[in-house]
C-alpha cells in the first residue's frame, strides 16, 4: 500500500498532473484505495492560482468515477461489486446498506462523499441497492464539491502551513461537519 501511496503522490509532480488527478479521482470513486486528496494537497500548494481548477477536475472526475461504481453495483454486483466489497471488508454490510439506501440514500452518499469513509463502497452499494440515479448524481456532485473545494480553499488561503492539519485532522473535521449537518436537519424536522 505504501508503494501505491508514493506512486500516487509522485503523479502530483508530473507535468500532466491534472490529467493524472482526473484519472485517480475517477478510479478512487469506484475501486482504487488511495484518495485524490493525496494529489490535491501538493498540487494546490505548488500552484495556488489553480486551486479551483484542481478542485473542479477532482470533483468532475470523482462523480464520473462514482457513476462507474454505481454501474458496477447495478449491472455487475454479483461478479464484480461483491468481490470488490469483500476485498474492502464491506460485503457483510450490504443488506444493512440496502435498507439505508431505500430510506436515506441521499445521506449515505453525502456522508461518504464528504467524510473519510471510502466513497467507492457507497457508489457500488448505491448501484447494487438500486438507489435513484438522479438522486445519486446530484448528491455525489454536492458531496465531492464540498470536500474538494473546501480542501482547495484551505490550501489556497493558508498554503503549506496548513498541510499537516489537513493530512492529520481534516477527515475528522469533515466528519464533525457532516454530523452537525444531520443534527441540524433532524432538529429542524422535529422542532
Automatic annotation (TrEMBL):
What's in the GO CC field?
A: plasma membrane
Matches recorded under InterPro entries: DedA_domain, VTT_dom
Q: Which organism is it from?
A: Primorskyibacter flagellatus
Q: Name one Pfam family in it.
A: VTT_dom
Which keywords, in A-to-Z order, does the entry hold? Membrane, Transmembrane, Transmembrane helix
Name of the molecule in the record: Cytochrome b561
Question: What phylogenetic lineage does the species belong to?
Answer: Bacteria, Pseudomonadati, Pseudomonadota, Alphaproteobacteria, Rhodobacterales
Q: Which residues cross the membrane?
A: 20-45, 52-77, 104-126, 133-158, 170-190
Segments forming domain VTT:
35-154
Amino acid at each position: 500500500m505504501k508503494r501505491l501511496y508514493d506512486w500516487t503522490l509522485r503523479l502530483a509532480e508530473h507535468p500532466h498532473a491534472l490529467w493524472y488527478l482526473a484519472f485517480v479521482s475517477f478510479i478512487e470513486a469506484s475501486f482504487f484505495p488511495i484518495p485524490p486528496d493525496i494529489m490535491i494537497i501538493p498540487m494546490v500548494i505548488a500552484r495556488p492560482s489553480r486551486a479551483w481548477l484542481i478542485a473542479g477536475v477532482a470533483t468532475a472526475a470523482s462523480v464520473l468515477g462514482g457513476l462507474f461504481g454505481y454501474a458496477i453495483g447495478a449491472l455487475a454486483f454479483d461478479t464484480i461489486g461483491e468481490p470488490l466489497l469483500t476485498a474492502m471488508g464491506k460485503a457483510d454490510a450490504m443488506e444493512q446498506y440496502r435498507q439505508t439506501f431505500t430510506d436515506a440514500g441521499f445521506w449515505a452518499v453525502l456522508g461518504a462523499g464528504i467524510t473519510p469513509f471510502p466513497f467507492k463502497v457507497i457508489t457500488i452499494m448505491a448501484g447494487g441497492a438500486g438507489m435513484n440515479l438522479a438522486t445519486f448524481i446530484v448528491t455525489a456532485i454536492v458531496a465531492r464539491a464540498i470536500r474538494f473545494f473546501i480542501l482547495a480553499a484551505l490550501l489556497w488561503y493558508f498554503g503549506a502551513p496548513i498541510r499537516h492539519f489537513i493530512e492529520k485532522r481534516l477527515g475528522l473535521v469533515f466528519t464533525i461537519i457532516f454530523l452537525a449537518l444531520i443534527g441540524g436537519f433532524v432538529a429542524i424536522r422535529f422542532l
